[in-house]
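Standup notes
- DV: blocked on the single-chain target, sequence here:
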Amino acid sequence: MKKAFRMREEQDPAGKIAESEENDVSVASEELVGSIRPLIEQAKARVAQSVNSELVILYWQIGKRVSDDLPVESRAEYGAKVVELVSKRLAAEYGKGFRRSNVFHMIRFAEVFDDIKIVQTLSGQLSWSHFIEIIYLKDPLQRQFYTEMARVERWSVRTLRKKIQGMLYERTAISRKPEELARQELVALQDDDRMTPDLVFRDPYLLDFLGLEDIYSERDLEAAILRELERFLLELGTDFSFIARQKRMTIGDRDFYLDLLFYHRSLHRLVAIELKLGSFDAAYKGQMELYLRWLDRYERRPDEEPPIGLILCGEKNREQIELLQLDRGEIRVAEYLVELPPREMLEAKLHEAIRLAKGQVEAREEKPPGWDRHNSGSSG
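- DV (later): unblocked, structure below
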């Protein structure tokens, strides 16, 4: 018995060595697999992107061919019958991707995006599902806005759908500009990925996800935003990064506190946000100007643009905003909604705001140079 025990003892060192080697092999293999796995995933992503790109271009080519071969006058009953037969034949040979509804999507796609070069560029960044969400929007500028924003901010199809349902285009300043100015800004975004404040800021902001009751304070609003910070950032836009709450600024012998401080990567700017209950007050402009000057002096880095401010109010007076020139420049004012009205009401409100804003811009452009200066003091 003792002899057998001594034999096992003598064998233990070898067993431990074998076990140690086995562990080393296991660790080494796991490390090697860990280094290979990203290579496989990257290759799969490139293949998927390549397949998507080819598919989008193919669908455009099919839509273009069908569209060109069907005269405009035959697009109704006759055209629908031709498309139905074509889709049946293609679906039987190549699968459900060529069913009737998808062939009609292809036709619409080729009609809306009539430049194959643009399609080739976008096909590497947007999927066919992205395009289906975009092509049935009625306004060409609206389509271009969602196309470029989805590309630049890399929206998923689900995010794109949410942005459209939330009427993001109608809530940005770009929709309130004359058509030619809006188009120039969207072309700059398309060509150079150049974001501007008019593309970034919204009005109103939809904060219904905060779950606030009928009566709440500014501190309650701030706390709710921080509690739901991820969803608040999604509403602000994907390039915002949170920096601080209640940012302390010592000016002279007084301390001031900025509600929220963010940074926007594409704008290369600090973004100061002040939260206000009730209606906008003209005094808020001076307060925000003070904060922006302090941030510009003490927080702005050499490679950054000057800070910009956003005053979020429960309600705003459009005439005050226009007189203070807060519809453009370094300070913006926007409303927030903690409860969403019916979609029809929100849509009517936004379209009326767009109409008024465009009218104001056109009126400013029609005034001769010096008109404001010569007429501001006249009594009639």
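- Follow-up: Strands lie at 205-206, 240-251, 254-264, 269-279, 308-315, 331-337.
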